[in-house]
Amino acid sequence: MKKISFAFVAVFFASTIFAQMSDKFTSAMQSKLALMDSAKDANSLKDLSAAFERIADAEKTQWLPYYYAALCNVNAGNIAMTGSGTVSMGNNSDKTDPLADKSEELLNKAEALSKDNSEIFIVKKMIATLRLMGDPMNRYMTYGPEGAQALETAKKLNPDNPRAFVLEGLDKFYTPEQFGGSKEEAKKLFEQALQKYASFKPESNIHPNWGKNLVDDMLAQMK
């Protein structure tokens, strides 16, 4: 009886410690996620990326902080590229490549912890697009197909992931018509994304659930 009681106590304390560690991780993630919407400049996003990376390195077994670190970093790259409000069609690779490299490094760590993950392929697509925009004229044939393949994989892994439709819509919106762009098709894709968001349920309150505000803004522009 004593052995059984001791075993029960051991399991109870182990469970309690695990729950406390889990709560600490969730709390740390929530505090950083709350800052993502207010991080509007490249430096703020890079700082936030570094904060997520510190959480990831401390936890070691969680893919989400590495994912968010990569996402923040690639978004910092997008802002750095458009610092003046417009995208130069020349060579911006000095600005974008270091951030794309860091994003890829972080995302590889996330993927090592979570294989065949639609959300990870969403960010792969974003990294490929960032590399492409670093030098569009010379990189389109390399990173265009790479990004398209990542997006297709994201859809196959989770056909209900609204962010796949968001990125596809952005591609159609910003690509010139002579290269396959279409504002009309972009609008349809954004509307599909909204339908997906209506039924999408993230696994937890720290799992990816971003993008709807962007869709709302894009559709408002297209009225």
Assembly state (oligomeric)? single chain
Share of helix, binned: over 70%
DSSP strand count: 0
Mean pLDDT: 88
Order of helices and strands: HHHHHHHHH
Give an overview of the whole structure.
This protein has 223 residues and is an all-alpha fold. The protein folds into 2 domains: 39-156, no CATH class; 160-223, no CATH class. It is 76% helix and 0% strand. The N and C termini lie far apart (73 Å).
SSE map:
Elements: H1 2-33, H2 42-59, H3 63-81, H4 93-113, H5 118-134, H6 136-157, H7 162-174, H8 183-199, H9 212-221
Helix pairs in contact: 1-2, 2-3, 3-4, 3-5, 4-5, 5-6, 7-8, 8-9
Keywords:
mainly alpha; globular; 9 helices; 223 residues; 76% helix
What is the compact description of this entry?
The protein is an all-alpha fold. 76% of the residues lie in helices and 0% in strands.
